[in-house]
Amino acid sequence: MIIEMIFALFLLGLVSVQAQAPDTRHRLPYTAVSLEDLSAFKTTGANWQVAGNARADRHAEGDLSVWPGTGVLANVMDAGNRAHLFSRFEHGDMELELEVLMAKGANSGIYLQGRYEVQLLDSWGKDKLTYGDMGGIYQRTNPITQQGYEGYAPLVNACRAPGLWQKIYIHFRAPEFDESGKKTADARFVTVSVNGVTVQKDVAVSGPTRSGAYTDERPYGPLMIQGNHGKIALRNIRYKLYNREKVSLHQLTCTEYPTPGDSLRNFTRQNAGTTGRADSLSWRRAGAGDTFLLLFRGEMQFPEKGDYLFSMQAGGGGMLVMGGDTIIVHDGANPFDRVAAGRYQAKQDRVPFELIYNKPLQWREGLALYAEGPGMEAHPLHSQGSVFTEPYVEPVLISTGEDKAQVQRSFVNTGGEKKTHCISVGTPQGTHFTVDLQTGSLLQVWDGGFLDATPMWHRRGNLQVAVPLGPVIPIKAGHDFSKAGGEPVQLQLKEYVLDKEGIPEFFYTAEGLEVSDKLVPGREGRSLVRKLKVRARQPYVFRVASGTVIEQLPGGDYLVNDKEFYLTLKGNGLKPELRTNAQGQEILLRTGRDGVSEIAYIISW
Fold it and tell me: Parallel, antiparallel, or unpaired for β 417-426 and 93-102?
């Protein structure tokens, strides 16, 4: 086993690469761009169309087909129609989310304020990245020499194959200007992520990038999507616009009480300590004791009326009451990273509030309260010192060898569930996968780094979870095999045997069934080949793949789970069946009544 304890400077870069896009469960909703028609955009060329579906042939350069309907925005450019697309709204600070589907070899870009480009490129399979690849921040041009400068390559290639939907997230800060119009701060990309993986982090751009619509800089500008370099489709475009206003606290006081234990139901306002003025929300205002309860009182000033969301973290428990309305109850002895949230409709400029922080255990601490509102980015109402932070820990990373695969048993979180009997295989080719040994199912595939084992081996390793170090494609969960009548078959792992490259072949048994299963990296880009031999004494049904929507392509391949990955069935001698069920669709193969059936397929992403 190769375990790497990475030095701090390298670690900072790696963690930024693997950081995920923001968790939106405790956020106010985004504003969706309607794709019923093009009314959300300024008048443009005939290359921009609204469609119901789009599909790109991953083997044909520049191919993109569209079907009538709504919900998809497509650039079907040709030699005579190559216009850019501009939003009717203008933005300063913003968060933007969208999905993009690239034709093979396509080149496009998203220009914040029509000036600062995040590159969209079919970078599938590239090893050496530049500012011109998917998620790169494009170069500026020197007006005298016409040479490029600045420009930032993505930290990692998270690009999927052409013809698949890819998720883009951008958090942008507009340049700042003083009252005279002089720029006081550059535009900045706080975060750019591709398919959930951070590819840019806190990058400043000193001016408009090449081929932007404008050469000057201003506080606001329209969103621009490039239309002259390649065919693409987009959907699920949504955004938040921010104005940098914040909620403020006034007339803040703090009273200390004994802790009522781990339930706020037992809290009584008797035995109060002294009440004093407080300059901020912080659990550190308490006295010398290790356990206590703090009651903060004051008024919140809202910049404007409307819908606000408050998020609380407390090492222990807490409660937020606004104007007599209970907004958050965070009862118990919670770890600090557990979040509780509630919404409040502000109808007045100032509202009295009470905030309780209960610390029933000496080893849990920390208090944080965040506010988000109309045109207002989520921001802290607590002091910086009130946040609990774990001491720095060098992660325990598992890598693969140069010429041999690495195998690791662990728990795995997938689909909101912890799987306890999993094995992950990392290959030198950079294609990795996880198998659920209880069901024999292929759970997930990914590329890039192999595993972060810190949750398994740090301290007590309570979580026992191994975390993939790359963008994960979930494949399926549940049982692969079922009887002809639909009853799931519970496979029993007999053994697995490693070949000379260190890749395991799995052997399972069940009543009247023997299965061998081997998965190896494919030859084409990011792909995985799976081959099974099934010896059965009665007919069985094998579930090859499942997803919300599965499309069969003209050549026989499939697009699985609404264009999340490709599936190619190879020489099985079994007729695939595409079946609709309550969860979506699935591809099934039926084995023979007696004898050996061979099943082979390729997953590409």
Answer: unpaired
The secondary element (H helix, E strand) that includes residue 449 is none
CA distance 135 to 108: 11
Residue type, 377: E
Per-domain residue ranges for the chain? 3-242, 248-386, 399-604
Distance CA 197, CA 20 (A): 5
The model carries a pTM of: 0.91
The amino acid present at 528, given as its one-letter code, is L
Please list, in sequence order, all residues whose beta carbon lies within 8 angstroms of the beta carbon of residue 109, skipping any fewer than 6 positions away: 117, 118, 119, 120, 138, 211, 225, 226, 229
Structure tokens given for 210 = 């090449």
Give 399-604's CATH code, choosing from 1.20.120, 1.10.3470, 2.70.98, 1.10.10: 2.70.98
pLDDT tens digits, residue range 55-109? 999 999 999 999 999 999 999 999 999 999 999 999 999 999 999 999 999 999 9
Residue type, 376: M
| Closest among 425, 419, 464, 456 to 438, alpha carbons compared | 419
At residue 552, the 3 state secondary structure works out as strand
Take residue 204 and report the two structure tokens written for it: 């400043």
92, 217 contact by CB (below 8 A):
no
Helix (H) or strand (E) holding 456: helix 454-457
Please state, in angstroms and rounded to a whole number, the distance separating the CA atoms of residues 119 and 131.
8
CATH number of the domain at 3-242, please? 2.60.120.560
Are the C-beta atoms of residues 456 and 473 closer than 8 Å to each other? Answer: no
- What's the CATH architecture for 248-386? Sandwich (2.60)
Residue 337's Cα: distance from chain center in Å? 18
Token pair listed for 575: 């007729």
Identify the burial level of 580 via C-beta atoms within 10 angstroms of its C-beta, where 0-12 means exposed, 13-18 middle and 19 or more buried.
exposed
Q: What pLDDT digit, counting tens, does each position of 201-233 carry?
A: 999 999 999 999 999 999 999 999 999 989 999
Assigned token pair, 220: 């606001």
The β-bridge partners of 253 are 277, 297
Separation of alpha carbons 51 and 67, rounded Å: 6
Select from 413, 452, 407, 402 the least CA-distant residue to 426: 407
Query: How is residue 560 annotated by DSSP?
Result: E
Check whether 25 has a pLDDT greater than 50: yes
d(Cα 100, Cα 107) in Å, to the nearest integer?
12
What CA–CA distance (Å, rounded) separates 133 from 156? 10
